[in-house]
Amino acid sequence: MRGADTRVVLGLHRSRHERRLLTGALDRGVRALDTSTNYLGFRSHRILARTAGDLLPKFRISTKVGYVPRRDSVEHSLDPARLHAAVEQAVKDLGREPDLVFLHNPEHSLRDAPHGRDVLAQACSTLHDAAEKGLCGDWGVASWDPSALPTLIDPTAPRPSVLMVRAGLLVGVRTLDAADALIKAWDLGDDAVWGMSPFGGSASDPVWARIDPRVFLRDTSRLSRVQAAFLAAYHLPRVASVAVGTDEPAHLGELVDALTGEVEERAIQEYRRLLRDHLRDQRA
């Protein structure tokens, strides 16, 4: 069994939640799980507790609140009472307090909301209060598209301890810039920022056969293309941990092994410059 590595978080978004995945993660030094109230048809917490309840104390567990089920659909809500109830239900279903609870994609309710700054501030205060009451260890914000958020930050509202945003070579420059603006607005250090979806959906997507991410490495011969893409995600934007989904422990081990590589920072900066130039050309 490898020593723990906090830089890799096992994401359960598309996972089957099999016990062998969790034991495999532990064997490979992965000690962090990321899930959400709405994963696996709003059954993620209960299935984790039922199939691997004895393993959960070995992990640092993060989950998310913001989506609620309706009879035939899913609704997003930042209503304080519903957020608080969702955190309480997460504790009940998991059989323990989560170490971290994210406000899940708040932009879904904020894009067209009047008084969006107040709505976001109240949602942040709700999760802050939940952490103060011991319902979770800490709280954060997870945003798939953070572009609407930087202008809605109230400096007097509670500040999240962790921000999770998309990371990797397939993230557009507007999303990268918005993430950087949020990080600055909340005055977060690199260790307080997580990345997610480092492969833009799947490491087997054809795009990874057409490009060679090893151009971003100092040593281009030692790691695979998939490993290089994963390592680059820690720099686009700069994050301390990356949540990645898989149902195969061997793939998870391959990604953990990628962390021995080194990224060429100048190549990353040049790539961001090219992205920005391309966006400017599109607007011209």
Structure write-up:
The protein is an alpha/beta fold and 284 residues long. It has a single domain (8-283), classed as NADP-dependent oxidoreductase domain (TIM Barrel). Helices cover 39% and strands 15% of the residues. It has 11 helices and 10 strands. The chain has an 8-stranded parallel barrel with strand order 1-2-3-6-7-8-9-10, surrounded by 4 helices. Strands 4-5 form a two-stranded antiparallel sheet. Strand 4 and strand 5 form a beta hairpin. Helix 1 (19-27) runs parallel beside helix 10 (249-258), helix 4 (80-94) packs parallel to helix 6 (116-132) and helix 9 (225-232) crosses helix 10 (249-258). The longest helix has 19 residues, at 265-283. The chain is globular, with a radius of gyration of 19 Å. The termini are far apart. 39% of the residues are buried. The model has no long low-confidence stretch (mean pLDDT 94).
Produce a short descriptive summary.
Helix content is 39%, strand content 15%. It is α/β, with parallel strands linked by helices. The longest helix is centred in the last third of the chain and has 19 residues, at 265-283.
